[in-house]
Fold this protein.
Amino acid sequence: MNLPKLAIAALGGTVSMQARNAGEGVIPTVSGETLLACVPQVTTLARVTVETLGLLPSASLNFEVLLSVLSWAKYQVEQGAAGVVITQGTDTLEETAVFFDYLWDRDEPLVLTGAMRSAQQAGADGPANLLDACRVALADNSRRRGVQVVMNGQIHQACSVRKTDSLALQAFSSPVFGPVGLLIEDVVRYLRQPTQRMCLPLPQHTTQKVALLEASLSADTLLLENILKLGYDGLVIAGFGAGHVSQKWAEVVEHIAEKIPVIIATRTGSGATARASYGFVGSEMDLIGKGAVMAGFLCPRKARILLWLLLGCQRQDELARYLNNDTCFQNQRSSVGAQLAGDER
Ligand code: GLU
C-alpha cells in the first residue's frame, strides 16, 4: 500500500524528559526516534521521517529556533510530507502554536503536541498524544486549518488554545470556544468548519523587542515609563477586565503609543476586550483614544507574538486589521456547537 509521508520533529519538553538517576528531576533526553518507537502503530499509517531538532525545556525555545523549525517543516512538505508533527514542552505551546500559525501558509497540517507526564512516569500521556497528533496530521479534514494543538484527545486552534492548568493531564483548553475537534475512537472529528486564515511573510529581521506587562492593583509606573528608553519597539499590556489600566498607567500609555504600537489585552484568561463600553480614564475607550489597539480575543502572549511578527516584516500599520479582523475566531463564534464537520473515516 502506498502510505502517505509524515514528518515528525522532537524539540524537547516533558514528553522527552526522564531522570538520569532515581530521585533526580527529569530533563529532556529522549530522542524523536525513541518517542516514535513507543507508538509503532504510526508506521502502519505513514512512511515516517523523524528528527530530533532540539532537546530543550520549552521555556528556553526562542523565535530564532522556531524560525529554523518552521523552515524544516516547510522543507518536509516540499519533499512530499502530507503532514508535520512537532513534539515540544507544553509550557510555551500556546505561544509556539500561534507563532507557527501566522507563518504556516501551507495546506498541509502542522500539528503540535507534548505531554504533561514525563516519559517514564506511570500513565505517561506522551505516546497517546503523539499517536493522536499523527492521526490529525494525516487526516484529509485537517487540511487548510493551519496549526493545531493536539493534547488529551482534543484538537485546539492555535489562536485560541491556552495552557490553563499547570500540572493536570487536562492542561489545555480554548476558553469561550472549546476544542475545534476531537479524536473519537481514533477518528479525527471536527466540530467546526475551517476558518479563513491570515498569514504573514517571514520576518526580515528578528532583533525587534516587544514588552509584555501586566496591570495589577496599585502598580507603579516605573517599568512602563522606561519602555521607550529601554529600546522596546512595541508594548502589550495584559489589562484588567475588558482591557483597562489605572489612570496613572493611562497617562504613560498615551506617551508610549505616540512612538510605538501598544496593544491592550485582557489578563482574565478568557473573553474579549471591549471597544465601546467604558469611558473612564484608563478604560478601553480612553486607551483607544490615546492610540492603543485592543487585542479582542487574542490573549496577551499571543498578541505579543503577532506584534513581533508584524514588526519583523514592517507591517505594524496593519496591526488593527489583524486584531479587529479576528478571522480565526469568526467561524468559531458563528458555529460553536455546530455539526461534526467533514468527518475523517
Ligand atoms: N510541563 C512542561 C512540559 O510539558 C515542562 C517543561 C517544558 O515546557 O518544556 O513540557
About this structure: Residues 123 and 245 are 44 Å apart (CA to CA). The chain is about 30% helix and 20% strand.
